[in-house]
Amino acid sequence: MPRSVTTTLATSLRRLGSEFKPNRLAYLSLTASNEALLCGALASLLHEAYADQGHTQVRREWPSSSDASFDVAVLTDGVPVALIEAKAAMSFDLVQGGDFPKNAVLEDLDRLKGVDFEGERYALLLVTHPHEIPRPEYDIAMPASSTEDMRRHGAIEPARVDNAIRRFHGAVGNPPLVATGRISAGTAFDVDVSIIYLLLSVPG
User: Fold this and answer.
1) What are residue 83's DSSP bridge partners?
2) Positive or negative, the Cα torsion across 101, 103, 104, 107?
3) 91 touches 128 (CB < 8 A)
4) How does pLDDT run across 109-162, given as a tens digit for each residue?
5) CA 162 → CA 99, 151, 165, 168, distances in Å?
6) Fewest Cβ atoms nearer than 10 Å: which of 29, 85, 111, 125?
7) What pTM value is reported for the model?
8) Chain centroid offset of residue 54 CA
9) C-alpha to C-alpha distance for 194 and 158, rounded to whole angstroms
10) Angle, to 10 degrees, between the axis of helix 35-49 and the axis of helix 24-31?
11) CA distance to 63, 91, 151, per residue, from 154 (Å)
């Protein structure tokens, strides 16, 4: 069994921002979904954390026997000891309180519960939060759906985001919250950007 996966995961999440050059994560997060990008950075940090334990490896897109794949797996002697499923959202997704990302995360919880293995299961929500709204001349560089939603909601105050996160946690059944925090992603299109993360433990 590798050293505490929960502790190692929480430490790696706190370090995610340092995996990118200044302001790069802000640009990448506003111009496309950052789910695969952040999962890759997280897997790389976990790989480094377990580098001295040769029997423990970290696998991206691990295929389970149930024909489902999981974003990140920690394997000991080829057997999973932890599975992580991630979803990326924007802060306006949470504030507007629609089906996304709630339903997507509920599906992840069910998939994780459905895997037969002795180990830890985690659902990870990654929320991109622009602190201001980019000026219209930058719209062409970002997905139309994102710019429309950002302009409709306007700049969202941190307190509203925090309240929306609490509502989201309740809407997915209040699974144990293992770690939460904010990563400074830097500046892009003249606005500061943060990544808020919630790491949830999923009962087997």
Assistant:
1) 73, 121
2) positive
3) yes
4) 999 999 888 899 999 999 999 999 999 999 999 999 889 999 999 999 999 999
5) 18, 20, 5, 10
6) 111
7) 0.95
8) 27
9) 11
10) 140
11) 40, 11, 5
HSE on the CB side for 201, CA within 13 Å?
A: 12
Q: What is the distance between the alpha carbons of residues 55 and 75, in angstroms, rounded to a whole number?
A: 8
Q: Nearest to residue 64, comparing CAs of 102, 107, 113, 1?
A: 113
Is 103 strand, coil or helix?
helix
Q: What angle do CA 34, 61, 35 make, to 5 degrees?
A: 10
Residue 2 confidence (pLDDT): 64
Nearest to 35 by CA among 96, 80, 100, 120: 100
From the centroid of its chain, how far is CA 3?
Answer: 22
Which tokens is 116 given? 């037969």
DSSP letter for each residue of 146-168:
HHHHHHHH-SPPHHHHHHHHHHH
> Which pLDDT tens digit goes with each residue over 31-72?
999 999 999 999 999 999 999 988 999 999 999 876 778 999
Show the tokens assigned to 43. 């897997």
SS3 track for 30-75: HHCCCHHHHHHHHHHHHHHHCCCCCCEEEEEEEECCCCCEEEEEEE
DSSP calls for 165-191? HHHHHHHTT---EEEEEEEEEEEETTE
